[in-house]
Structure prediction request, 217 residues.
Amino acid sequence: MKLLSFHPSVGDSFKGIKEIKIIKGIKGIKGIKGIKGIKGIKGIKGIKIIKGIKGIKGIKIIKGIKGIKESSSNIQNQELMNYKISNQALDPQEVIRLAESDKAGAVAVFIGTVRNHSQNKHVVSLEYEAYEAMAIRKMEEISEEARQKWPIEKIAMHHRIGKLSIGEIAVVVAVSTPHRKESFEACEFLIDTLKQVVPIWKKEIYEDGEVWVAAHA
Prediction:
């Protein structure tokens, strides 16, 4: 195993990493003590974990690194956010941004909100529950099916869970395509299929009771 080291010269300029204070707990390697005062490395992207080094015990976290813009895990998390189940208020603009593409001439969006009546009753609020892992998987499957039917650039689907008041947003679906006709068609397919197959359940709460009204949203 080779150990790679980096030895900055006096004239080197680093911006962004304000402080790497300590590398603690490395046993069996002598002479690495207290790296301090390296300042400023800007724009380091895509840090990946080095796995599988055996025999080095007790390596603790290096703290205090500032200015690192994006690690590979952050990039992956951003990609996964195209499909989201959330107990927080949904932001339609966020969903639209996730679906936007320079190659697209249209972005169609569906926003589903909580209405104040259903089944000839006055609705006070709704409550959604979901099998979250399966719901995300089904959203991905729906998207793949849609891509087989239309020339889609990007898709984003976010669904709310928890208790929602009248007027709150329950679901946002956005899809981008080269032309508007296929964008409208794809968006309708996505929301209709989501309501049919994604494991999300809705309870309607009335002034005089409550009921689970459907297997899906």
